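User: Run a structure prediction on this.
Assistant: Running it now.
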Amino acid sequence: MITQTIGTSTRMELTDQLYFIGTGGAHLYYFLRIVLSADKTVRDFPFIASDFPILPTGEELTKKNYRPNPDQTFFAVFKDANTLSIFIKLDESTYATSQKYLRRNAVHTNLLTICFKDGKTILKDFVPY
């Protein structure tokens, strides 16, 4: 399990949880599961799968103005316009099998971000600068 602290208050610390769940089989893939601290609801994303679900080091992720480099990472947590977002780079196979679902959610590339607003999932294309 990988967890990421998203904020603190004077009364409690809120921690959202990211999991990579193995799908089994000869070539193991992992899909993304997110549990938000606000509602404790499990959100599975079977169309977001990877055989390499590795996050950059904590040191890298906590750098001021950190922005993922798609040439160097497949997953990252970062602030995008003051919103905590998850960057995902899908491999060619996963992108090909997930295109229909992704396009219905306005994602048109294999680079995407996930964020949440009022408990609602927001998917969008990642735009590297």
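The radius of gyration is 14 Å.
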